[in-house]
Amino acid sequence: MSDSPIVMEHAEHEARPELRHHFADVEQQRNAASLGMWWFLGTEIMFFGGMFCAYLIYRRWYFEEFAAASRSLSLGIGTFNTTVLICSSLTVAMSVRAAQLGNRKLQVKMLLLTLVFGLSFIGIKGIEWHKKYTEHHIPTFDYNVISGEGSLVKGNEHLLGIDKVENDPVKLRERKVEIQQHTKIFYSLYFALTGMHAIHMIVGVGIFICITWMAHKGRFTPEYHTPLEIAGLYWHFVDIVWIYLFPLLYLIDRKPIS
Amino acid sequence: MSEHSEHIVSAKLYWLIFLSLIVGTVVTAWVATVDLGKYHGIDANTVVALFIATCKASLVVLIFMHVKYTSEKMTKAILLAAIFWLLLLLVLSLTDYSSRYDGSLNPLPSDFTAWLA
């Protein structure tokens, strides 16, 4: 009698407080949670995909303006921030591994490092945005393509095709208005994409504060660490979005101007 | 109690993936400053940048996100469906916009313009 499936199931539910009553066993519960997260990430791909698509179409239409505006972003800061995010992905992977091995101390250490990297990324992003604010590159009423140090035209006259229409005042005026308006579209997309990414980072940091607390309390064991694992999936996904944002926004055209 | 079939990735492999991702980032930033030229109107720099990004994303998905080790077929099915959907959106939209007549992007052949006049 005691080895009948129902009795065994009951025994597992008794022994494992984290096992919800509507799941047959821990494995099924874990697979369901993981599957749910993957479905969610699928919808996230659709969400970011729409914005990426808008970006790619406008980039094709107004390539010269997008390239000039892209050159105004700091290549050094962008590269550095990408490595910061990659570091955070490593620490997340390592904390999941520590949970699998039952090493609570390493788990918490790696999660705290993740928070440090995540917050650093958001902070550096904030510095970049502030620079864009001082350069009048935020696409609002005081947006200005030729403001001071942030001038997108200076040095890019050839790229923007200004030299071609220099002798025709009517065409030159038309071109200047186009440059002002089309670079503004680049920055609208830049702030929409990096802004949505940053919101995802902030949500991720919030989730990982809870996860770190749970890890500190010893809630994760080699048998059960599903919350940590699926939170990790989300974090890695946000990392992947940035892996594409970095070349698309920062590296449109960095070639030396001949 | 059910057996746990979870795969534990070695720390060494995680470090290796991490190093590859860092190298990929540095290479992509550096190669962007080198003129790789244009082939059939396609900017080689953009192709290289997106290729490196896709390699990096694949490493993260396969190793960090454990897709390579999962026994759950549904995970792979969802992932492939999502990528397929994304490619449908991007490729079909871009073919549409790229094939429309546009004076500067898709100029008409010169003999056609002459015939038109």
Give a verbal description of the structure.
The complex is a heterodimer of chains A (258) and B (117). With 258 residues, chain A is an all-alpha fold. Chain A has a single domain, classed as Up-down Bundle (Four Helix Bundle (Hemerythrin (Met), subunit A)), CATH 1.20.120. Chain A contains seven helices and no strands. In chain A, helix 2 packs parallel to helix 7. The longest helix of chain A has 48 residues. The model of chain A has no long low-confidence stretch (mean pLDDT 93). With 117 residues, chain B is mostly helical. Chain B folds into two domains: 61 residues; 46 residues. Helix content of chain B is 65%, strand content 3%. Chain B is built from four helices and two strands. In chain B, helix 1 packs antiparallel against helix 2. Chain B is elongated and about 70 Å long. At the A-B interface, helix 1, helix 2, helix 4 and helix 7 of A face helix 1, helix 2 and helix 3 of B.
Q: Give the topology string of chain B: H per helix, E per strand.
A: HEEHHH
The major pleated sheet of chain B works out as: 2 strands, antiparallel
What do the pLDDT scores of chain A average to? 93
Anisotropy-based shape of chain A: elongated
Distance separating the two termini of chain A: 84 Å
- Helix vs. strand class of chain A: mainly alpha
Q: How would you name the CATH homologous superfamily of chain A? A: Cytochrome c oxidase, subunit III, four-helix bundle
Main β-sheet description of chain A:
none
- Helical fraction of chain A equals over 70%
Question: What Rg of chain A is obtained from the alpha carbons, in whole angstroms?
Answer: 25 Å
Just name the CATH architecture of chain A: Up-down Bundle
Oligomer category: heterodimer
Rg of chain B to the nearest angstrom?
Answer: 22 Å
CATH topology title of chain A = Four Helix Bundle (Hemerythrin (Met), subunit A)
Order of helices and strands of chain A: HHHHHHH
Q: How much strand of chain B?
A: under 5%
Average pLDDT of chain B works out at 89
Give the class of chain B from helix and strand content and strand pairing: mainly alpha
Q: Please work out how many helical segments of chain B DSSP would assign.
A: 4
